[in-house]
Amino acid sequence: MPxxxxxxxxxxxxxxxxxxxxxxxxxxxxxxVFGFIGPNGAGKTTTIRMMVGLMKLSAxxxxxxxxxISTNYKExxxxxxxxxxxxxxxxxxxxWQNLMHYARMMPEVTKERVQEVVTLVGLEKxxxxxxGKYSLGMRQRLGIAQALLHNPSVLILDEPTNGLDPAGxxxxxxYIRKLAKEEQVAIIISSHLLSEIEQMCxxxxxxxxxxxxSIQTVGGDAADHNLIHxxxxxxxxxxxxxxxxxxxxxxxRIDEFLSFRSQKEQVPxxxxxxxxxxxxxxxxHVAKGNLEDQFFELIxxxxxx
Amino acid sequence: MSKLVSLxxxxxxxxxxxxxxxxxxxxxxxxxxxxxxxxxxxxxSTEQYxxxxxxxxxxxxxxxxxxxxxxxxxxxxxxxxxxxxxNYYLEHDIQPEAYGAWKFVQENLAFLSVVSLLTIIIxxxxxxxxxxxxxxxxxxxxxxxxxxxxxxxxxxxxxxxxFTSIFVFAFSWIIGAxxxxxxxxNPSIVTNDGSGGFEVVSLVGSIFTEYGYSMVxxxxxxxxxxxxxxxxxxxALAIGTAIFLMMAGNSIxxxxxxxxxxxxxxxxxxxxxxxAAGNTPWIEGMTxxxxxxxxxVYYIVFLVLSWLFFxxxxxxxx
Lengths: 305, 318
Fold this sequence. Notes:
The complex is a heterodimer. Chain A has ten helices and 14 strands. By secondary structure, chain A is an alpha/beta fold. Chain A is globular. In chain B, a hairpin with a 5-residue loop joins strand 1 (about 190) and strand 2. The chains are: A alpha/beta, B mainly alpha. The interface of A and B includes residues 75, 104 and 106 of A.
């Protein structure tokens, strides 16, 4: 069992008489990237604000490396780096001045460390320009830089790839994976871009109307599950018959494709059998939008109650 | 402790890096410079007293003042004061001092109300702007209590008012020295002694006394603006109410002067110079100690409210 970095224990938040977060409980482990998704108004941002102490909890507790955010705020928040919503900085100061400003608020952040972080997010060139002139992508990088200054154990990023170009997204994604793997940082990413989350995260928590409705594992574990494969094959009826007879797989014809559920390891054998039966296989792939389907299955329509 | 120092350092950077702050200083400098030019060209210079015949000059002036009094009733009060003052010089054989840097500094004390204005603007923005910029979120997720952040912001406002006052003082003195020369290390002036007569006092001393009196009002209004800023997170509202109250303060007291509770109004107590010799308090029965107590109560209320709202309230989405 990996070590717990952050733990939410029956976290509740009421505003007036309305309960907007209805008891969230989950843990995030060291070295994992945890995706936090849900429709607008589900309570993602409220939960993140409670995690970093911007909002008080109505009930329950958030523990960061065992320290409660409510009762031991300074110790708890020392291990957290975060971007909450947009990475807003002082527009009249340069990127460097902004980072130094935050560096002075935390213990033991040296100039060398600031320089290191700047290099890391690739902002060396514009670092002395005023932040007011930055593009959204540059501000996003600066936001990540300030979150990393003090080498936190928990990194909370709200929509981290928002405004980045594809190359930037790739870079940040690789960097996030690297941080989790090499530095054992626990990373929480909120996003509404499902493909984004799918590519970056180890586990995904789906939140709807202030309730956690599902936690799913992506990536590595997927091999254990049956994946939906789509195959372009000729003749299609014969291929379906082969799958049914030799592998007891239910195959469905969708448009020009034959669609079936099977384990990844089975696929080479299936193709071999098909060829032996004179079926021409043109292509086979795992159906995309896997997570997306599950997501919509889980949350239903995008309604805010 | 060193943490608080770096927090204050941060706040000072954020104040002084902004062009609008520099614009404030440029406006102040231009006002002082303009004052010097005006005084140089039209002011009643004291040059005429600097020759050996200054006694005759004073007597001639008295004669002219008397004549004016007979022609114009309105001038009677002012002129008779002036005559008595001139007589005091003659009787005690004191040559009126030349106009110079110190005197100029004293005249520029009026600009401390501009300093109050600028301090109110800074105080009103220091909390509210963080909310407006959205930077409050990144500011509050540091291993520092909210009380610490608020304290550093409040102290930064006081520092700003101190620096700006020093700027007015120093710049006035330098400009005064350039335009009019320096009277000496410790020049003295003749002023009301409070019981109808006159006395010789140190000019520098009276400048600092007046600075002190102005600071009371400045700090109270800045703290008020700071409180509004913390409670409503809106700088325009804070600037508006604080400046309105600063301008209307005296009228408010005047309006309610006949009420029993009028002496508890903040503005009835901010002008402590009313307890100095020769002045009368706003409302009979008020004493220096009473005003100090009222001021302290207001001050504590302002700070406690700022603190309560800043530390206890959630930072929710805009």
